[in-house]
Design goal:
Two copies of one chain form a homodimer. Chain A has about 325 residues and is of the alpha/beta class. Chain A has a single domain, classed as 3-Layer(aba) Sandwich (Rossmann fold), CATH 3.40.50. Helices cover about 40% and strands about 20% of the residues of chain A. Chain A contains 13 helices and 14 strands. Chain A has a seven-stranded parallel sheet with strand order 5-2-1-9-10-13-14, with helices on both faces. The longest helix of chain A has 19 residues. The two termini of chain A are about 15 Å apart.
Chain lengths: ~325, ~325
């Protein structure tokens, strides 16, 4: 029987596993939902970093060297902008600019973020639906030790994650509606599992899970929700997750990630490097598998997707 | 005594002579006023082709091979935009994009077109003031044989000047105010001459001259207004001027250009190739010199500027 997977993703790490599922599953068997809490308006352009990272990854346009942005990217725009006295701290590549210009133009015409995403994904030949978590404005704000609250991209890119984090606030989230297609994907008869990709739990996954109606829809679905740890051997594969955890007063470990998700997930995936944590995670009441989660090659991505799929079958059995 | 020149310019041809003056004259001795009738909003960006061509030329950033845009330009943005299903008929280069993004952003903050131009010119180290003819919206519309009226860039770039022209309309011109600095430049005590650079008389120069108050200011100034023919040997050095003239039922000749300007200029500059037209132009009551007006090298630009300056002294004597 055909099974449908809903993958919840932040940026780079999540996109890797989403790509694994995209290769493993036929069109119609996968819906990817991306965090939009990182979105912001910069230089007059609506920029959706996680959505774009997933889109570029699924379209095989992602830059494998940089780990973000488009392959074959160049920086002429930014160089010229700097000479004109413009803000150049957010690294907008020349090819990447097309995405932001196209999206901003379509939004100005009255299309929703979902519609613009659909149009761009179709143009790029992406077979599986990619949905923003919401069409409404949600802005992740980072609370810092100094008392200053920073917009996410200012914290993440401009300030290079240097400020000490004390918490987060998702501005607009309480009034945001899940984008069209989000709840219906979770309500599908053939839904096999919901996979929380290895993304930052605090700033990439929580905004999705905290969307009004989302947790209820997961409960109503009655299918396993499986999280893949973004922390391996105490370190984040990419991004500030481990640093954030330490600043928030928790150990930067896969166990702490599982604890963070406790009550919201039905299964957890540990990397082989963290096999010794399995008993502790299971002691939280969370069934756990240990597999290779560090995805270097495309085969790694597909293998991990396959392991998660098999795990979901065990959990449903 | 220091003399001040006001140069009225369209795009490429006008910018060449403006550059000649910029090299010949000290800062404070030159004001360049550029046509903005070609301006349009495209992909959400305010684009000012003539203003940008003059700015790039004065900053020595202009693309000498293409004859428009920036030197070392690349086209990654446009390539990616086309793949996303966006409009790619207007050739926006990656470096050029920075100008449009910067300008659009500053305008959105409430700055005027003059202010944004000033800020960008300062950032690029341009010593002489470059002014848009107006801060108000003026849109050159091209009337065509088919009855359709085309926005200028649609006629010029998208339709490659193919439609047969029957006339022009400058939408918004009757209510446009000359930009700050335009009338005061024309009212300067030390004004030596106003030079109409070799630009398209119909779509680059007329919008400037037809600005409310502009002709009166030229009359009040009482200094020679000198036009350099953009038509040489019956052909336009660049652009559709000659084709337009034929379609409008006039010969495509420097004499017809002089006739078009009759009553509005005090001197005319013919190329050596058109020396035989001198008597006919002078018969219109317009003093005329013959010199080399085709500007290939920087020295050509400076030489022509010098010839025009000397001519203005003869006319003032």
């Amino acid at each position: 029987m055909a099974e449908h997977i809903v993958a919840l993703s932040g940026g780079v790490g999540g996109a890797k596993l989403a790509l694994g599922f995209a290769h493993l599953l036929a069109p119609g068997q996968l819906t990817v939902i991306a965090n939009t809490g990182d979105d912001f308006t910069h230089l007059g352009l609506k920029i959706c970093p996680d959505l774009d990272t997933v889109m570029y990854t699924l379209a095989d346009l992602n830059n494998k060297e940089l780990g973000w942005g488009q392959a074959g990217e160049t920086w002429q725009f930014l160089d010229a902008l700097e000479k004109l006295g413009g803000e150049a701290w957010f690294r907008l590549g020349d090819r990447d600019m097309a995405t932001h210009i196209r999206r901003t133009g379509l939004l100005a015409e009255g299309l929703s973020l979902s519609d613009t995403t659909l149009m761009m994904c179709e143009a790029l030949g992406i077979a599986h639906p990619l949905l923003p978590m919401t069409d409404d404005l949600v802005a992740t704000m980072v609370r810092t030790r100094s008392g200053e609250e920073l917009a996410f991209q200012h914290y993440f890119v401009r300030d290079r994650c240097e400020p000490e984090v004390t918490g987060f606030r998702f501005q607009g989230l309480e009034n945001a509606l899940p984008a069209p297609g989000v709840l219906s994907a979770l309500g599908r008869e053939d839904l096999a599992a919901v996979v929380i990709c290895p993304s930052n739990p605090f700033v990439s996954v929580d905004p999705i899970l905290y969307l009004p109606g989302l947790m209820q829809a997961l409960k109503d679905a009655g299918r396993p929700v499986i999280a893949v740890s973004p922390i391996v051997g105490g370190m984040a594969i990419k991004g500030p997750a481990a640093k954030m955890m330490q600043e928030l007063g928790m150990p930067s470990s896969a166990l702490a990630v599982a604890t963070h998700y406790q009550g919201r997930i039905d299964g957890f995936v540990l990397d082989e490097a963290d096999a010794d944590l399995r008993a502790a995670v299971e002691a939280l009441g969370i069934p756990t598998i240990v597999t290779k989660t560090v995805m270097i090659t495309l085969a790694d991505r597909i293998d991990l997707a396959r392991s998660v799929l098999e795990f979901s079958r065990q959990l449903s059995a």
